[in-house]
Model the fold of this input.
Amino acid sequence: MLSRVSAGAFKKAASLGPSRASTLLSNSRSASVRFASSHASSSATLESVLSSRAALASVSLFTAGTIAWYTHLYGKLPFVGEVHASHLSDEGLHPPTYPWSHKGVLDTFDHASIRRGYQVYREVCAACHSLDRIAWRNLVGVSHTADESRAMAEEVEYTDGPNAEGEMFQRPGKLADYMPAPYANEEAARAGNAGAYPPDLSLIVKARHGGADYVFSLLTGYIDPPAGVEIREGMNYNPFFPGGAISMARVLFDGLVEYDDGTPATTSQMAKDVVTFLSWAAEPEHDERKKYGIKAVIIFSTLFAISIYVKRFKWGVIKNRKIQYNPPVDKTHH
Done:
């Protein structure tokens, strides 16, 4: 059989060998170039997104908004020290940290303490300080019943009108009315307090550095001035107040009020109750916010677990597949 094969046939076979090898090499090179080009294009797309000004501006705005919202809620950023341009004694003694019952992530207000704190505010603090942002209806379901709140509101006379004759008139208060202020205006308040203006207490816990700890320490921190410290007449010494000299004298003393539930009315107990009430007044949605937060964490955690399962179920086949290249078969040889 070999003797019958001509020399031209051997030359043709020899020429086909290099051509087939070159064909396979070119196919493999084209495949590698195709994969490389797709990888390069994806990398270029990712790089363009990361380097675009719109993406940088979006990330910057999101970061700034997150920081601003956190500082709005909590007053300061964690793990960031505070810089003071003045001496620390000018800012007052830093208050200690107290274990408030509503301080935890899952903790709510002590509503019995809120009721007692309102009593302290009404009998002691309301003589000088207003509570402009709290209406009588806000007490319903929190510290008092609707009938109790309505009865307290009717004890106050509010100016309303005009009536059919065009004149203003006095009427008993309603649940929709806001708590009355002790003074008609700022000038009257300063005139009745030797030039000092008693601040509104609606947001006092959020408006002061240290929050509830500061207000409690201020109410219970009155002492005699130490040696070398001079306090002018009409002022009182309190190390927790900036500068040490405060116009407000000590107002809480043991047995000053008589609680309806029989709780001993010590100075620290009254201060704790009124600070709890003022904390609620500064954030009436506190309890509801935490309830919604728990529900949101549960719902989003469940959705996250479902999304992970769906992702693995849908993409598992695609991500685990094996790509194999089968070169074309040369059909010229049999």
